[in-house]
Give the backbone structure.
Amino acid sequence: MLEGKAVIGETDMLQTMQDDALQLAAKTLDFFDVNEATDIARVIKQEFDKMYGGGWQCIVGTDFGSFVTHCYGSFIHFSIGSLAILLFRGSAAPAIDEFSGLEGVKA
C-alpha cells in the first residue's frame, strides 16, 4: 500500500462519486502492490461498472500521458503517493450514417 493522502489533479465528478473513487483506490491498494498497476486498474474499473453502470475506463501508473473523451461528470485524475489514477466513463461517438460522405456516388 502507498502511504499518503490522495491529491486530486482534475475532476468534474460530484463529490460523492469522487469519494467513492478515492476510497476504492485506497482499499484496492491494500490488496495489491504498486507494481501491479493493471490489477489495480481492473478492480477499480470493474467496481465502478458495478456501482455506476458500464463504460468506465481506468489507467493506473507512475508515468503516463492521456487525451481522452469522457462523459460529463465522470472524470477524475488523482494521485496517491507516486501512483497516478485516471478514471473516466468513455463517451460514445455520435452514430455515423453509413452513407455520409457518399453524395453523388451511385450504387
Remarks:
- The beta strands are 6-11, 56-61, 70-80, 83-90.
- The longest strand covers residues 70-80.
- The radius of gyration is 17 Å.
